[in-house]
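Students often ask why we bother encoding 3D structure as a string. The short answer is that it lets us treat folding as translation between two languages. Here is a chain of 613 residues written in the first language.
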Amino acid sequence: MSKDTAVPDTAARFGRYEIQQEIGEGAMGRVYKAWDPLVRRVVAIKTIRAEYLTHETSQEYLRRFRREAQAAGRLSHPNIVSIYDVGEDYFVMEFLEGVSLQAILAHRAVLPLAEAMRILTPVAEAIDYAHHAGVIHRDVKPANIMIQPDGRPKLMDFGVARLPTSAITDSGQSFGSPSYMAPELIASDDVTPRADLFSFGVVAYEALTGKRPFQGDSITAIIYRIVHEAAPPPRSYNDDLPPHHDEVFRRALAKEPANRFPTAQSLVAALSGEELILPEELLEPLAAAAARGRSGELTTHLLKRRPDGTIDEDEKPTRRWLSWAVLTAALLVVGAEVVALRKGGPLPVAVLRRAAAAPEGLRIETRPPGASVWMDGRPAGETPLAIKDLRPGMHQLRLSLEGHAPAELTFEMQEGTNAVPLSFVMPPLLAPAEIHSDPEAATVTVDNRVIGLTPIQKLSLNPGPHEIRIERAGFLPAVRQVDAHPGVKLLLQARLDPAPPDLVPVPAASPVAPPLTEGMLVELDPSVPPPRRISGEPAAYPKDARRLHLQGTVEVEMIVDERGVPHDVRLLRGASALLDEAVIEAVYKFRYEPAVKDGVRVRSRHTYSQKFP
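And here it is in the second language, the structure alphabet:
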């Protein structure tokens, strides 16, 4: 809605929000499109359907509703709908344009694997982010995934409290979405984040097969199958899926929560074939083979399987580099022994396929996927991407992804050979932020630097902790300590309380700077010379990069502390994972003469770039 759109003349309100129309209805609530006259924007309001509450349960449910809505309101992620405000029996959230994944699947049934992954990957990141923040969704399903006009998905309906079974009225109304519920959620109200991971697995299964894994003519039949029966292999519905998907979904839809994937992103990685689970008999031979040389660009984690069948994976597993040649040779050498030693079942098909098949042409992969690729100045598509029939000679590759560090690389394609896959890590850049206040026109100060007056729609913060102060004459100031994460939007909304009449307000535009102390993080200016490197060698040109004649510039940013030691090195511009990792590893060994301000040794941000070869 534009700024000059007339505010609707209506008596229907929730607080200050003016209702425009009803746009949805669920088991426990209704959703309205509304107008916020203070911020002058369209919002969505979700309310409780009071007809399903009894006198005995209403207060308890309202308390849970507010508690869970407030918890969800702390979430700030580009793929989670933002919650702006929480009222007595409603909450206000971002109004989204688009179509739900449920509507897309109803129209198209099955999504191609690449398209499904473009939806599932951001949703997985959103689920894991919420779990890390201590919030369980409890109702992950296609209807709660909105696909916006630009193709970006958003996960909705966080913060909706659920009534216990004893609190459901005699209306006969069925609550929840049984087809997507985890077995433990059916049996108990005490759930863990892995209930969301089960539901996410059902969503992924349906998107790739056009079928729900647990079907029945009644809710009772569906619930029985969820609790007692295994899901049909997805390739029984869609034989175009990779063979390893049957094993992936067997684990994703396991009845026991501990046997499922530990995170939503690990499930997505497994669907992409990135997680190679080798039998225990192969671990030692492959580790020995990898130790003899670092050739190629294939990165994998070797994971051990516990006696109960689950995977023992560290939070930060050891990275081993295996070339196609090393992996193939290792499988061939120990192949006969594996046949004799394995304890049941053949080798995972994904491992055999990746070991035996040589890459066709040049394969370009990025993490996250979806980066735009330009080859020799011409658009070539989005990652992951395979470019066939690439002529021999030198080529220039450029990648970009909105909100992420770009990458650029020059390489040589040799005649008669297939290049190894080129992989790129594209980390998010600065953290976007949006700051509002009630009332508006309050002065915003970030880390003792005045930014402007609210509302501030577009602000970029460096990753890390910040102090944000919001103040206006006649009101008590609001001070928030926030932690900015790269690429994750920070939404801050402060309600200022009127100051008591006898309180003399401090001028809002005159923040008092804290005293300068050793180790304080300062911004560089002409009076503060940047850190000067006094030891440490630039990264060596990696052998594999030399073989491929890779050429490019890697640029990183770091914080140099008061002792001259680099911290928090992050990529600003990449040139393939091979070169990026070489630079980052070298930078951590640098030592600097730190920045000095007014005679005090301080921390400061510093950039370093290195050109290859």
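Translate back mentally: Confidence is low (pLDDT under 50) at residues 1-11, 161-176, 275-359, 508-512. Keep this in mind for the problem set.
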